[in-house]
Amino acid sequence: MISDTDCVKHATAAPAVAGEKTSASSDKDHRAPPAAPNIVMSSKDHDSLFSGGGISFLSGSRNGRINYGYSSFKGKRSSMEDFFETKISEVDGQMVAFFGVFDGHGGSRTAEYLKNNLFKNLSNHPGFIKDTKTAIFEAFKQTDVDYLNEEKGHQRDAGSTASTAVLLGDRILVANVGDSRVVASRAGLAVPLSVDHKPDRSDERQRIEQAGGFIIWAGTWRVGGVLAVSRAFGDKLLKPYVVADPEIQEEEIEGVDFIIIASDGLWNVISNKEAVSLVQTITDAEVASRELIKEAYTRGSSDNITCVVVRFDPS
Question: Which chain positions lie within coiled-coil regions (predicted)?
């Protein structure tokens, strides 16, 4: 669950950000998909939409501004299991931006843990600046181990996907675990920066079977007949078949118009190309994130929907 406290945290935890903002309106009747659910998340209204955003500046050779926005909506689900994080921090003298979407299953515990700990663990890694890919891989795996150790004794087996983007110098480093997704726009063309971890992906199926696991069809392909994603944090009962090893893709910021990071509540009903086209002309990243969620809800998404948009504005 995302609360008003989280809104305050986003507005105060990143001193390098200028222009942090949130927006508010209300709409509590979701019996039929509204044309524009212009609503704001609060701790008392679980059906509402929470959004905000801010601006910061790149520190690489391509100096310019980033304009980011986020929106999160419970939608038609009975509970909210999505979390997200936006962080702008100085690490070893360099400015770093971190954006992540965490889609929980079996409860919200794992997603909330990732929001609170994943970037902290990554930024504290001794090799974060010099060997960022290795640091990301090791921090993801260690975070999973730490979470499972903390969860010992809890009967409920919860898990979460994670799609993250780190902006460091002139680079975007995308790390993905599960079926949330990161998509970039280059000159209006949709460029996938992650590939969904689904059990029926041939390499994922082979990995699972080599580890002694299996996948079967139960409405969709599922690991052990249970989980519809093949990689996730948590899910201790499905280890070692369901792992938190991230797939990492590096991209030059030069030429990227914007990136979209979203949970599968968006991607289940909107293609990469459609998402890029929908927000191509929207210069305010928060407005873009809200429009994506509105469109996904209007198209009948039955899941929680969370979206972060980061737009690169050259100086």
Answer: none
